[in-house]
Amino acid sequence: MRFFVFRNRISISTAQHISLVLPCYNPPLNWEKVVVDSVNSLEKVGHFTIELVIVNDGSSKNVSQEHLKFLKSEIPSVKIISYEQNRGKGFALRKGVSETKHDLIIYTDIDFPYTQDSFLAVYTTLTQGFDVVPGHRGAAYYNDTPFIRKLISKFLRWTLKTFLRLPTDDSQCGIKGFNRMGAAVFMDTQIDRFLFDLEFIKLAAKRKVKFKKATVVLKPDVVFSKVNLRILARESLNFFKVLFRK
User: Please, is 53 exposed, middle or buried when counting C-beta atoms within 10 Å of its C-beta (0-12, 13-18, 19+)?
Assistant: First the structure.
């Protein structure tokens, strides 16, 4: 899926518009209200307008016509992409990014798990002219993280430091931003599920785009989703694909 006609790289000091892509799969209750409140608050504080793109990745619960009608009534410009079969977060995000129109793009999760200041940190770093800005969670992230998730995260971080030597050890952070140069790299990822983030970071490092991390913090009341061990086992094959992808 390649759709970009490259523009000349420019240094952006200010930006009044941003595209926000939210993948959605069996979201928590009241997610639509969280989305509306979060977008309105970010626009007010950040002094920009948001092009909202939501990708319903084959949800089997908690996404109804009533939810979508509410979103469209509160944010008339929202773009909603839906398909029946769950394809994975990576697939959903590529689908959403392909529908964006602004030069700066951020993606995060449907429940907005990161603080407002974290979102603004990613945005502000993008406006400084960087092509790819991944969020980076500090040591405090592990304070309340479930054991299995903590184990997986620490293993990946160790791998990134030891073998791949990538520009960040937190590839799986759920908020990332990029401009059109970075988006072209993102659209070249192939993995549909868990490790698409790692693939993206590796491709960004290989292609030597302008890259800078932004420190982000989870909200104190965030609820972690359960780790699907079956999917995780399948992802082990993708891990080796990432390691050896050229």
Answer: buried
Round to whole Å and give the CA distance between 82 and 2.
20
Beta pairing partners, 56: 24, 82
For residue 200, the domain's CATH number is 3.90.550.10
In terms of Cβ atoms closer than 10 Å to its own Cβ (0-12, 13-18, 19+), residue 232 is: middle
Stretches where the chain sits below pLDDT 50 are: 1-13
Residues 20-29 have pLDDT tens digits of 999 999 999 9
Give the SS3 label for residue 135: strand
In the chain, the N- to C-terminal Cα span, in Å, equals 18
Residue 92 to residue 73: CA distance in whole angstroms:
23
Q: Decide if 10 is inside a domain.
A: no
Determine the Cα–Cα distance for residues 154 and 168; give it in Å rounded to an integer: 13
- For the full predicted model, state whether its pTM sits above 0.90: no
91-141 residue pLDDT tens: 999 999 999 999 999 999 999 999 999 999 999 999 999 999 999 987 666
CA 238 remoteness from chain centre: 19
Residues 6+ apart with CB under 8 A from 162: none
Number of domains in the chain: 1
User: What pLDDT is attached to residue 25?
Assistant: 97
231: containing domain: 17-244
